[in-house]
Design brief:
- 33% of the residues lie in helices and 24% in strands.
- The protein is an alpha+beta fold.
- It has a single domain, classed as Holliday junction resolvase RusA (60s Ribosomal Protein L30, Chain: A), CATH 3.30.1330.70.
- The protein has a four-stranded mixed β-sheet, with helices on one face.
- Helix 1 packs parallel to helix 3.
- The longest helix has 22 residues.
């Protein structure tokens, strides 16, 4: 039986979007701050470390009804993903990532993260 652990993280800052045209230093500070926030929230949730590969299911819950590109969402969340991996004490190359953009919205936006053991489909 696979245990699914769930965590709600903040929406990535706008400057982390690949479409943002910001100075590298501003982007670097925002990435570091966001990574640390995700790290601390993950640590507080006391998630257990999956054995082997981990399925990282990301559900992006936007702050408004504007359309979002999934590739931009995953790129903006990169530092958050790094923070989650750091909190679990694993290399993020162990993640197998699934993502979706929610039809619902939430004030300020959020990223719902679900972590479970990755089970490969047998052919």
């Amino acid at each position: 039986m696979t245990v699914v652990q769930e965590l709600l993280l903040p929406w990535p800052p706008r400057v982390l979007s690949p479409n943002a045209r910001t100075h590298w230093a501003t982007k670097s500070r925002a990435a570091k701050t966001y990574r640390n926030a995700c790290f601390l929230l993950c640590r507080q949730a006391a998630l257990s470390v999956p054995a082997g590969r981990a399925l990282l299911s990301l559900e992006f819950i936007p702050p408004d009804r504007r359309r979002r590109d999934d590739d931009n969402c995953i790129a903006a969340f990169k530092s958050g993903r790094d923070g989650v991996a750091q909190a679990l004490g694993i290399d993020d190359s162990r993640f197998v990532t699934q993502l979706q953009i929610s039809a619902e919205t939430i004030k300020g936006g959020a990223v719902r993260v679900r972590i479970s053991d990755y089970v490969e489909a047998q052919a």
